[in-house]
Amino acid sequence: MENNQNLQKRMATRHITMIALGGAIGAGLFKGSASAIESAGPAVLLSYFIGGVVLFFVMKSLEKLVLNSDEPHGLSGLVQPYLGNHAADFTDWVYWSLWMINIIAEAVAAASFIQLWFPNIPSWAFVLLIAILTSLINLLSVTFFAETEYWLAFIKISVIILLIIFGVILVAQNIFNTNLISAFSGMTKYGGFAPHGLKGVINSLLIVIYSYGGSELIAITVSETEDPKTAIPRAIRGVIGRIISFYIVPMFLLLLIYNWNDLATSTMSPFVMVFNKMHIPFAADIINFIIILALFSSINSGIYASSRILFFRLKNHKGKFSQKIATLNKSKVPQRAVLFCSGTLYIGVVLSYFLGDSLFNYLAGSLSYTVLLVWFLISLAGFLLARKAKALGTMSMSLIALIALLLIFFGILTTNPIGVTLFTALLYFIIVISYRKKNDPVDNIG
Question: Which end of the chain has a smaller Cβ tally under 10 Å, C or N?
Fold first, then answer.
């Protein structure tokens, strides 16, 4: 039967590296960085560093799971041998819900940036346009998607590298015109390095975890990657360093160039502020365009990830709805799963109408919980694998990640709005009971 056909292996290491970067570099960096700085002040660097260390340990667990799995299908195929069928099913559906919520959040953010140029056009029109474009890209072929995402991520990274270069120039000029101590004094002015104390660092971790989320998207590409056991570990090693560098280094330079409270309260993107300071013509428009591309890239990756998860969750089910959704077209793309997932964007139109600008922050809070949970399950599976193999080094890293994720979770729990927490808890509860009512455990392997 058609829905039992396999996806084609068309992705190379360069593709999956850029896809992971595309998923991780989006609204969290371009829209959320100012909020993170506002929460923690210069201590936001500590938050990004802590998040980066945890990310490193989680991704090492993911690498070991890939190397020890036989043709896994997404996250469920990686964790199932160690956590069981129920946890594997839960992991996939939670991760699917993460991307469903994320593409709404990113689309709402993208529409707000496009409206800066076209203020008289309603936001739903831009969300509609984004839905059509991302659907077309994902429907044509996995090769076309991979190439598109590669170049979108390349553009984003190029702008970040430009920011780093300009930042180094501006900091060097400041040191030359004053002295080294004066150039670094802004880090401790205006309330000290951590003006809001430990609570500020914890609050900013919510945004940091949301920002780093998407890196684990590499696991979803396993079934469409050429030689995954070679390509994916190589991509993981490349992604970890780049993500940490592209967040921490720009943030450090920004805090040297500007006072943290100016960055936190400015209506301008920190990227625009640096480009303006370098006297780049049309800086605001250039950065606005790049931000839109970054968000579009993240939405594109989200539709890819969610459609593949949906395909694998439903392809072995016997129901008519499941068989219709889990169907491949001539290009071996799960076209109906793509259309179903991109259709979620229209829910964002309705939500943005009622909730307005607060929708993004509300969704980001829920996403932080889910990223933490998915990372926890990956680390737990990695810990059990390492214990079975008696690999003390990997076991130690996984254990540190588990403890850190639990501490971050309790920190976010005390600072997140109660409405966000209840909404997320309800979502998890529905996923847990749906397994018992609808799913046959035999069908939940991969």
Answer: N
